[in-house]
Amino acid sequence: MRIKIINPNTTWSMTDKIGQCARSVASAGTEIIAVSPAMGPASIESHYDEALAVPGLLQEIAKGEREEGCDAYVIACFGDPGLKAARELARGPVVGIAEAAMHLASMIGSRFSVVTTLSRTIGQAWHLAEAYGMQRFCANVRACELPVLELEEPGSKARERIVDECRRALDEDGSDVIVLGCAGMADLCAHITQQLSVPVVDGVAAATRLAETLAALRLNTSKRGELATPLPKAYTGALSGFTLGDNSGHASHQETRR
Amino acid sequence: MRIKIINPNTTWSMTDKIGQCARSVASAGTEIIAVSPAMGPASIESHYDEALAVPGLLQEIAKGEREEGCDAYVIACFGDPGLKAARELARGPVVGIAEAAMHLASMIGSRFSVVTTLSRTIGQAWHLAEAYGMQRFCANVRACELPVLELEEPGSKARERIVDECRRALDEDGSDVIVLGCAGMADLCAHITQQLSVPVVDGVAAATRLAETLAALRLNTSKRGELATPLPKAYTGALSGFTLGDNSGHASHQETRR
Amino acid sequence: MRIKIINPNTTWSMTDKIGQCARSVASAGTEIIAVSPAMGPASIESHYDEALAVPGLLQEIAKGEREEGCDAYVIACFGDPGLKAARELARGPVVGIAEAAMHLASMIGSRFSVVTTLSRTIGQAWHLAEAYGMQRFCANVRACELPVLELEEPGSKARERIVDECRRALDEDGSDVIVLGCAGMADLCAHITQQLSVPVVDGVAAATRLAETLAALRLNTSKRGELATPLPKAYTGALSGFTLGDNSGHASHQETRR
Amino acid sequence: MRIKIINPNTTWSMTDKIGQCARSVASAGTEIIAVSPAMGPASIESHYDEALAVPGLLQEIAKGEREEGCDAYVIACFGDPGLKAARELARGPVVGIAEAAMHLASMIGSRFSVVTTLSRTIGQAWHLAEAYGMQRFCANVRACELPVLELEEPGSKARERIVDECRRALDEDGSDVIVLGCAGMADLCAHITQQLSVPVVDGVAAATRLAETLAALRLNTSKRGELATPLPKAYTGALSGFTLGDNSGHASHQETRR
Amino acid sequence: MRIKIINPNTTWSMTDKIGQCARSVASAGTEIIAVSPAMGPASIESHYDEALAVPGLLQEIAKGEREEGCDAYVIACFGDPGLKAARELARGPVVGIAEAAMHLASMIGSRFSVVTTLSRTIGQAWHLAEAYGMQRFCANVRACELPVLELEEPGSKARERIVDECRRALDEDGSDVIVLGCAGMADLCAHITQQLSVPVVDGVAAATRLAETLAALRLNTSKRGELATPLPKAYTGALSGFTLGDNSGHASHQETRR
Amino acid sequence: MRIKIINPNTTWSMTDKIGQCARSVASAGTEIIAVSPAMGPASIESHYDEALAVPGLLQEIAKGEREEGCDAYVIACFGDPGLKAARELARGPVVGIAEAAMHLASMIGSRFSVVTTLSRTIGQAWHLAEAYGMQRFCANVRACELPVLELEEPGSKARERIVDECRRALDEDGSDVIVLGCAGMADLCAHITQQLSVPVVDGVAAATRLAETLAALRLNTSKRGELATPLPKAYTGALSGFTLGDNSGHASHQETRR
Prior knowledge:
- Six copies of one chain form a homohexamer.
- By secondary structure, the first copy, chain A, is α/β, with parallel strands linked by helices.
- The first copy, chain A, folds into two domains: 2-97 and 207-257, Rossmann fold, CATH 3.40.50.12500; 100-202, Rossmann fold (3-Layer(aba) Sandwich), CATH 3.40.50.12500.
- The first copy, chain A, is built from nine helices and ten strands.
- In chain A, helix 1 (12-25) crosses helix 8 and helix 4 (97-106) crosses helix 8.
C-alpha cells in the first residue's frame, strides 16, 4: 500500500519530520511518500494562508492519482485545508490530521483539549470540531502563542511551552485526553505523553493509520453525490493547469478500479 | 462609497449581469465595480472549483485595497468561497451572497427554501446555513440540475425549471420565502417574484445592500482576533505574488484609517 | 421611504435620542418617525414589562399601516418585544434591534459580546440569540447592573460603567465585536467605539439600515404561512380596540400593494 | 390547595370545559378556579392574538395573588402565552399546558406528534418544543385546519378530523404518543385514547397535576434571577392599572411566605 | 395506587431513607414499596456499577408486574440506570429520579445546577441532561467528592460539604435552582432549602409525584414502538431466569388492562 | 497484538462468522479471539436484551485482562452495549462496532444511511449516532424488519431484503454511504458492496482495524476521569463474582504498563 502524506506548507524540514513520524507508525508493507507542494505559504496560520495552500495540495493529489498510484492520502496540517476538494479528486480515501486526531481522541476518553500554536487559529479548530461532529468531545482549544515555524528551530522553548499548556488544559478544562494541534508537533508526542498521565494524540500518526485502515477495507470516497469527481471545465490564467480532461486517464482508471 | 463585487468565476457575461443587478439596487452615490478574477474556473460546481477560485478572488481583494480604494466587497458565488480569507485581507467589510440572502430571508418569514443549480452543491449550501446560524430557518435546499453556465445561454429552459422548483418548494417544504442559490439567477429575481406569492431573495442584491449598510455604519471587520491581517511570510512558486509585505502600504493605511 | 421606529417604552427622552440616532444613519430620502406608545411601561426590564409593552406597540404598527403609509418598522428595545405579532400586522418589513445588531455583528467578526443593563435581562438576550440563529456567534451576555432609565440621567456614571464592561468582555470572553444591549445606549456608540479597538454595534442604527434595505429590495414579510395577517375576531374589554375588521382598508391595501 | 386555571381567551364555554377537565383529574382536596380574562381575544390563533391575551392573563394572576390565595396557576392555551411574565408575578408555580403535555409525553414514549388546530400555529408549537428542550422528542406538529372555536360548536366534525389526523401521525411520523395541541380538545382526550392504541396527552390534565405536584413539593418559582418579581415602575394609558407598588401587600406576602 | 421505588444499589439503609422520603410526599391513598435488588453493587459510582445494577433492578420490575400489582415505578439512582429496559418490561409508567428532578427544575427557574457526589459521575449527569432535553437548563454539574456511602454515615461532614457546594453553584454558575444529584441526599432537601434562597429539587420526591401523576392520568408507556414488551427468547447461564415467556401471565394481563 | 472480539449475544454461529470477518481484515501479526459470553440473551433486540447482555460481556473483558493479555477489545453488537463500562475495566482500548462504522463512514462520504434489523432498534441507533457526534452524518436509520437470528438461517431471504433496503436508502435518503446495522451482517458486506455503487461499511471490520490502530498507537483509554478503573466495592447475590479487588493484579498490571 502506498500512502501519500502532503504537508500543505512549503517548509521541507517539517515535511521530513512528518514523514518520519508516519513511517514509524505505518504497518509493515505500507510505503509512505511525504511531500510539500511546489507553491504556497511557508506556514499556515490564517485563513489566507490556508486558502493559498490548497492549489499546491491539489496538484500533489492529482500527481498522486496520475503518476504515483497512491492508495490513500493524508493532509498534514491541523486546519485540514482542501479536504473535500481532495476527496473529489482522489479515488482512494483522504484523511485530515485534525479529523483523524479528534475521531480517535473521542474513542479513548470523555473529552479532549486541543493544544495548538497561535490563538488566531483557535476558531478554525472549533470549526473543524463542529464539522466532524467532535464538538461535543472538545473541552477546549488552547494556544501556546507559538508561530508554527518556531517548532522547527533547534533550541526553542517550544516543547516546554506546549507541555505547560497541556498541563493547564488537564487542570482547567476537565479533559482527559490531549490532541496536538499542529503537524509540526508530531515528533513531540512521545515526550509529551511521558510528561502527562493521559493519552496524547498526534494527528499525523492518527491519520496515517486511519488512511491505511480505510484503504485496507477498500472504503474509498463515495462518488455518488457531493464528492463525485469534479466536472471538466476551463481553468484560466495561472491556474490553467488545473483543468480536468473529459476523457482523462483519470476517469478510465476510476472505472477499472471500482 | 465604492463597493467591489467579485464574481469568483471567470465567465464575464455572468459578471456583467451581476454588476447590473448590484447597480440597480445600490443607493445613490454608491459606485459598483464588478469583476472576475484573472485566474480560475469558468464556473463553480464542486469543492475543487471553489478552492481554485479563491486565489484569483484574493488577488482582486488585494487590488481593491492597494489600488482601488474600495470601501466594501461582495463575493458573488453562492458557495461564499474565500470569505474568511478575504475578511482577513480587507480593511472594509466583506459579504458573501449566500450569507446575505439567508440572513435577510430569516427576517421576513418563518422558513426559506434554497433553489440552486446542481445537486452536488446542496451539501455546501447546508454547510453555509449551519456556519451562519441560518440552518434553523432553512426548510430545504433543492437543486434544478442545471449547470451554472446554462443560466447564461439564451433560450435555455433554465427560467422555467427554476420557477417549477420554487413552486414545489413552497408546496412541499412548508417554507414561505425562496432564496435563489446562484449568482447567475440574479436577473431572474423579479420574474420569479411575479410568479410566486412569496418574497424571493437574490443574494447579489442582498449582499450589495448589506455591504453598503456595514460600510455606512463604519462596521469594518474586527482585526482583534481570528480575522486579523495575515502575518507576512514567504510564498513560493506560482503563488509567490501573494506574499504580504511587513511594512506594506496596506498596514500603514490600516492604521490611518481606523 | 418612511420608516417608523417604535420605542416600546413610554419614556420620550429615550425615544427622541433613538430618533436622532436613526436619522443620523438613514439614507438620503428616508423619513424617520420615532414614537413611544400611548400605553405601557416607562422602561422594559422584565418579561412582565415586555409583555405589557406589546399592546401599545401594536397600536403604533396599526396606525402606521392605517394612517401613516409606513414602508418599514423598527422595534427599538433590545428584547425585540412583539416582533412576530408586528410582522403579522404590517405589510412592510419589521426589524428588531437585537435581531439587527446580532446579524450584523456576525458578519464582521468571529464572536460578539452583548453588554446590557440589568442581569435579569440576560436570559432574554440569550433567548433571542438562539431564536435568530446567532447563539453560535454570541460569546457572552454581560450586565452592567444599570437600570434602563439611568441611561437617561445627565451626569450618571452609565457611560463609564458600560465602557468598563466592554473592556472586560474583550479581555475575558474571547470576543472581537461588541453589541450594545439597550436602545438607550444608541448615543454612546461613537464614544465607546473610540475607546475600544473593535467594532461596536448599536441596534438602532443597525435596524434602521436593515429596515431600509428590506424595503428597498421590496422584501416584505411573507404572508403565506405563520406570519399571515391575523384572522378577524372579537376582542373584548380594554382591548376591544384591537379588533381587526374583515373588510378593512388594511386588507384591500394589501392586495393593491403586492 | 387552590389552583387557578386561566384560559387566556374570552370564550367562557371553553373555560367551563377546561375547568371540568381539571377538576376531573385533580387530587382530593384541590380546589380548581377556572376563568377567562376580562379583556382580550375570543380565540388565540396568531402571534397577534397571543400577545393581546397576555394583559388579561396577567390581571388574573395578579388577582390570584392579591385576593384569591392561589397556590399555583395553569395557563390553558397551547401557545403558553405570558408564561415567563406570569412566573415573575406569582409566588407559587405557573405551568403552561404545552409545557406540561410535552414533558409528560417525553416520559412515556420515544417520540410524540402534536395535533393542533390551524397550520399557522405550527411554528409556535415548534418554538415551545425547542424552548422546553422537548424538540428532540417531537416527531411532528400537524394541523387539522380547524379554527379553535369550531371545537365549541355542537355537531361539528372536529372530533372526527382530529382522530383522523392522529391516525396519520402514528402512521407517518414514527411517533408513539399523541399530544393534543389545543386546550379546547381537553374533553376529547378519553374518546381519542379509545380510538388509538397509544397514550394521548391532554395539556390541561397534565398541567393541573404538575401544578399540584410543584405546589405540594413547595417548588415555587425561583426569585433569584430572571424570574424575580418585576421592579415597580410607572405604567401609563389603558394599562396604568398594571403598575406594581413598591410596598405592595404582594411583596410583604412574599417575604412572609418564603 | 401502588408505587414501587427501586433503589438499584443494595444498601438498605439508603433504601429505607428513600422510602420515607417518598411516603412523605405521596398523596393520600398512595402506597409506597421501597426495595433494593437481590443482587448488584453496594453503591453506584461508575458505568460498571451502573451496568451491574440493572439485572437486579429488572428483577424487581418483573416481580412488581407479576406479583405486586404495581401501578408505577421509580428508579432511585441519579444515573437512572435501566430506565428504558424497565419501561419495556412494565405496563405502568417508570420514572427516573434524575429525569424527574431535571424536568421539574426546568419549570421553576431559568437554569439549575446539579450537585452530586464524585466527579467521575459528572459525565453521566450531563449525558442524561442531554437525553432528556434538559441540557439547555443545566448550568453546571458539580461534585462534592463524597463517596455515595459516606452520605449514610452518621456524623460525616457530608451535609456541610453539600451546602457549601450548592452556595458555590449559585455564586458561580448563574443558576437559580439546585438539583440534588444523588438519591442518598433525599433526606437533606429540607435542610438545604432552608440554608439557600432558591428552590432545591430532590429527585426521589419529584419522581414519586410524577409517577403518581402519570398513573393517575393513565399515561402508561406506549407499547407501539421502541418501548414495546421485549420479544421472548432464550437467556442462558446465570441470567437464565430473565427469559420472558411467550404466553406469560404478563402478556395476558397487559391485554386485559389496556 | 491480541484483540478480543466479544459478540454480546450467546449465538455462537454468529460469533464464528464475526471472528472470520475480523480475521480477514486484521493486519499480519494480529491474533483475533472471538467469543460469546457465558450468560445472557440469544440475540439483542430491545433495551432489555441489551442491558442483560452486559454482565456477560464484562465478564469476558475481565477475563481478557486477567488471563488472556488482550491489547484491545471490540464489542460486536450494533447497540454497542456496555461500552463505557468496558472502557473503565480494560487497560487497552475498547471499540464498539456502531461507533467504528459510523466514524469511518463519516470520512468517505457526505451522509450515510444505517440499514438494520427490527424497527424497534432504530431509536438506539439514533441515540448512538448522537452520542458519537455522528448524527450530522446520519441521513436515516432504516429497518428491514428481520429478526437478528434470521440472518443465521441458511436459505432465508435476509440478503435480498437487506440489499433492497439499501437501494431504497440511496434513492430516498440522499445518502452516499451505507452502514450495516447488525454484526450478523458482517459476512454480507462484500456481496452488498458489489450490488451497489457506494461504499458499504461493516462495523466488525471497521472496529477490528480501529482497535488495532488505537493499540498500535498506544492510545489506551484515559484513566484520569470518567473512565477510570471502577472503585472496589461489595457486589452481592448472583453478581457477587463481579467484585473488583483493591490490591488486584489488575491494578498493579496497570501501573506496570503505563
